[in-house]
Amino acid sequence: LSTPFGILKKFNDGSYQLKNTSDSLHDLFDNEYNTFAFLVDEGFLIRSYKYTQKPKGEKETVINHEIFKNSKIESACDFLDLLAIQRFKINKSYTVSLIVDLLRYSKVKLGLLLIPSNEKKQGIHIKSVYEGGLAHKSGIENDDIILKIDDKEVHFHKELTNVLENNKSMILTIKRKNQLHKIHINLNNN
């Protein structure tokens, strides 16, 4: 299925993957937020994502995109230095891709854009909350961190998905500006 942000594939296990390919890593970075927002609006949960590069005739490899995002790039020379660090072959034709692994929400949409992560971190980080969505109506705010669901610590998006699919309500323990808050969400109000 073609979308404004790449090709969406469905797999036999019910999971999905979006792949957006470009000749410009910068373009993919610029569209990252809009891509994730589009996927959430369409009812997907972002499990993980990665950027890859594929020089013509060679194998696709993963790009350490955090180097690019966390670097101060003030000139074209700075950007070329970073490309060299990442072993981009400027003289070769290559493509770069954003690959996003997804799950489809069941019935319930909270209206959250989560920060995808492949690592076990403290809680589930919320990038933004959609105005008028269930999470917004329940009092969840941008940059909150979900530490617990029904007093059970959580670290991965899949844990939130499991609760959404199997419960009628939940109590979230949220960390907001170094303070803890308990928020009750009635999933039948969606």
Number of domains: 2
Please tell me how large the radius of gyration is.
19 Å
Strand tally: 12
Q: What is the tally of helical segments?
A: 5
**What gross morphology would you assign?**
elongated
Question: Which structural class do the helices and strands define?
Answer: alpha+beta
Mean pLDDT: 79
What does this structure look like?
This protein has two domains: 2-103, no CATH class; 111-189, Roll (Pdz3 Domain). The protein has a six-stranded antiparallel beta sheet. Strands 7, 8, 9, 10, 11 and 12 form a six-stranded antiparallel beta sheet that branches. Helices cover 25% and strands 38% of the residues. The protein is of the alpha+beta class and 190 residues long. Strand 2 and strand 3 form a beta hairpin. The longest helix is centred in the N-terminal third of the chain and has 17 residues, at 25-41. The mean pLDDT is 79.
Protein traits:
190 residues, alpha+beta, Pdz3 Domain, 2 domains, 6-stranded antiparallel β-sheet, 12 strands
Summarize the structure.
The chain contains five helices and twelve strands. The protein has helices at residues 25-41, 65-69, 76-85, 134-138, 157-166; strands at residues 2-3, 6-10, 16-22, 44-55, 61-63, 94-104, 112-114, 124-129, 145-149, 152-153, 169-176, 179-186. The strands form two sheets. A six-stranded antiparallel sheet has the order 1-2-3-6-4-5. Strands 7, 8, 9, 10, 11 and 12 form a six-stranded antiparallel sheet that branches.
